[in-house]
Design a protein that fits this description.
elongated, about 130 residues, 4 helices, mainly alpha, de novo design (two linked rop proteins)
Length: about 130
């Protein structure tokens, strides 16, 4: 059975990790579109959208890889992007007056995605 099957993203809905990362990317982009921020914070939000969308893109590339090494390399990059995304979310949470609950939800999902990717990497190396 594929390690990516049966990942629960919402109650009673099953997604593989690529689908879950895509939904997360969409949520981050939507959040950034809703937030009003001063120009000084533009680069932080730009980095957030880049790292968040990189997670899913690298998972897709990894799945399309021709070798186990390709797969692991892309998944390692996706893991790094997930961790970077958590950094930017924390920085936004701690420097701007924003909805802390929304950031908390995004942080929790980024953390879950990070843990899932790490587990897939470990089990693939197995």
């Amino acid at each position: 059975m594929d390690d990516e099957q049966n990942i629960i993203a919402e109650p009673e809905k099953v997604y593989d990790i690529k689908h879950r990362a895509y939904i997360f990317s969409r949520e981050v982009v939507g959040y950034i579109g809703e937030v009003k921020f001063d120009r000084i914070y533009f680069s932080i939000f730009d980095q957030l959208v880049r790292s968040a969308t990189s997670i899913g893109a690298n998972l897709v590339e990894g799945k399309a890889g021709t070798t186990k090494k390709d797969f692991l390399n892309y998944y390692a990059i996706a893991l790094k992007s997930a961790n970077e995304t958590k950094y930017w979310l924390c920085l936004i949470r701690d420097t701007l007056e924003i909805d802390k609950n929304r950031i908390k939800g995004l942080l929790e999902e980024a953390d879950e995605i990070s843990k899932i990717i790490a587990k897939i990497i470990i089990s693939t190396k197995g």
